[in-house]
Amino acid sequence: MQKTKEHYQNLIHQLDQLHQDAVTLEEKFATTVKAVHPKFKKSARNLLHYLALRQHDIRDLQEQLAQLGLSSLGRAEGHVLASLQAVRQHLCRIGECQDTQRELAVTFFENKELLDLHTEALLGPKPDKRSTRIMVTLPPEAAEQYELLPRLLKAGMNCARINCAHDSEKEWLQMVGNVRKAEKETGIPCKILMDLMGPKLRTGPLKEGPRLLVVRPVQDSLGQLIEAAKVWLAPQQDVPLPKDADTWLPVDSNWLAQLQEGDKLSFKDTRGRRRGMTVMRKEKEGVLAHLLKTSYINTGTELVLKGKNITKRSTTIGDLKALEVPIVLKKGSFLVLDREPIPGEPATFDADGHVVQPAHISCTLPEAFTQTKPGQPILFNDGKIEGVLEEVSPDRLLVKITYASDKGSRLRSDQGINLPDSQIHMKGLTEKDCHDLKFVARHADIVNLSFVNHADTVEALHEELRRLNATDLGVMLKIETKEGFRNLPHLLLTAMKTHPTSIMIARGDLAVECGWQRLAEAQEEILWLCEAAHMPVVWATQVLETLAKKGRPSRAEITDAAMSQRADCVMLNKGPHIILAIELLHDILVRMQEHQHKKTSMLRMLHISDMGNLVQE
């Protein structure tokens, strides 16, 4: 169908309106743009232009442009005004209309240059063969086992992540030292990122259960013994367990000193069942014994040494860690969240089975009691338990459980709580984050701000870094709540006040907050906005998780890893097979960059064996 001059003019008018709206939004935020770091000036302007563009539904316009063989603006993120102007110029030539030139915030060529500049400033030089970096969460053994670090670097790690929610400054310092030593040994550069814990909403402690240890040998599905349980007997646990030990029992040092390889030890477990152990190896710090039957051992259990010429025949097991008795919740049951750190307990019932007192547990964030409303949803343990707030008061929240497993779901201490529809606003950084930041500023290259929801929290981080004279420290913002996702444009513009800076898509909590069905859409929107801001983005949570933990990936994980190539960095979590996971991810990223760059499909020649014969036919 022949297009009229009026048709082209109508399309040009729509493009002009999009351009004008983009410029208007930039003018509205002129003060904000003025405050950003000089290296982010063009990026901040382009981000505002992209936000203005996405305020319109342009699907009809896209279809009409595609029919003319022109760009449908589907790849305009990094250079919005340049894309609008290029399409306008082509329309003017086709429709014989007057062309005009306008100032561009970012040209087509500058788009990639800016993203590369910002990524290298934060994550270091581009690794050989691939453009996407690999970040790895360091396991606790990275503090003690130096030999692990060179292997991680040689496998393809570009950034080491240390989580401040775990371990202490002693272990962190050992990890940092091992990374720096491995860098020098291998000649492979590696950035160090440290996660601040942030205002994580978690369950409080539970009432202590019995001081009991259950030791189980490995059995097959028929209950037949496959491998003995390996028990380390030692006076204290100041030294790490031997690598082949499963658990530790504290015993008297004088009694322990007389043990020899081959000695038989007998005891009665808490059920009154006779059990025995055999000493297999003696070391300076203790002995390793094999146990062939499942045993329930508590503090005070008597161990008896069999044989002649024994100085001290028996001893008792020392103080064991108390077992945690979880709260079992079912659909329709009630749970009280206490503001005070009262140890949690399961519900109590009368003789007729009626609830006398509902289950209760404390939570770690006081703001949850003042910034929530009845009727709002609440989720526990990564969404495995769902509920709704029935009553809200300054001291307690009454929750009705709306979803749990059919047999009941277990709630333990230190498990995550999500309030996706509650706009909880934390002012500044937590006390722990401020304390940990002093260490981070001295030893890390990048600080990762967890559970950031509002721009003033980013401002508080910037202020604290200025106070610590650490303004050159890279900053990363973890987007893991519905509120943080909703406020992402403001977070980006505020983060741009320092350079370098970046975003992490923390898909674990984000999925719980936004809903599983919305996660794919949410991560796409984050990728789009970060590309518009020329800001590096990290694709995180459960990437090749099954491979890292069990040694074999699922098919879905391979596809997820392939999709992660559109980010600038991919994060792997720790696991016994982490080296395999890094090597496979490296291979996938190298292959996928031949096919995809951000949202653009790269039309490389297809490697299909019969394609040549097909063309010749």
Describe the structure in your own words:
- There is one protein chain.
- With 617 residues, the protein is an alpha/beta fold.
- Helix content is 35%, strand content 22%.
- The chain contains 19 helices and 31 strands.
- The longest helix has 24 residues, at 5-28.
- The mean pLDDT is 92.
Determine the structural class based on helices, strands and strand pairing: alpha/beta
What percent strand? 15-25%
* N-to-C CA distance: 35 Å
Number of helices: 19
Number of strands: 31
CA-based gyration radius: 30 Å
Give helix % range: 25-40%
- For the residues shown, what is the average pLDDT? 92
Shape label: elongated
Unreliable stretches, pLDDT < 50, 5 or more residues? none
Largest sheet: 8 strands, parallel, barrel
Strand order of the largest sheet: 1-2-3-25-26-27-28-29
Main features:
seven-stranded mixed sheet, 19 helices, 617 residues, elongated, eight-stranded parallel β-barrel, 35% helix, single chain, alpha/beta
Quick synopsis:
The chain has 617 residues and is of the alpha/beta class. α11 (455-467) links the parallel β25 and β26.
Layout of SSEs?
Layout: H1 5-28, H2 30-35, H3 41-53, H4 59-67, H5 80-95, H6 108-123, E1 133-137, H7 148-155, E2 159-163, H8 169-186, E3 191-195, E4 212-215, E5 218-219, E6 225-227, E7 229-234, E8 247-250, H9 253-257, E9 264-268, E10 274-282, E11 287-291, E12 295-298, E13 302-305, E14 314-316, E15 327-329, E16 334-338, E17 348-349, E18 355-357, E19 359-362, E20 377-380, E21 385-392, E22 396-403, E23 409-411, E24 417-418, H10 431-443, E25 446-449, H11 455-467, E26 474-479, H12 482-486, H13 488-495, E27 501-506, H14 507-514, H15 516-532, E28 537-540, H16 545-550, H17 555-563, E29 569-572, H18 578-592, E30 596-597, E31 600-601, H19 611-616
Parallel strand pairs: 1-2, 1-29, 2-3, 3-25, 7-8, 16-19, 25-26, 26-27, 27-28, 28-29
Antiparallel strand pairs: 4-12, 5-6, 7-11, 9-10, 9-13, 10-11, 13-14, 15-23, 16-22, 17-18, 20-21, 20-24, 21-22, 30-31
Helix pairs in contact: 1-3, 1-5, 3-15, 7-8, 11-13, 14-15, 17-18
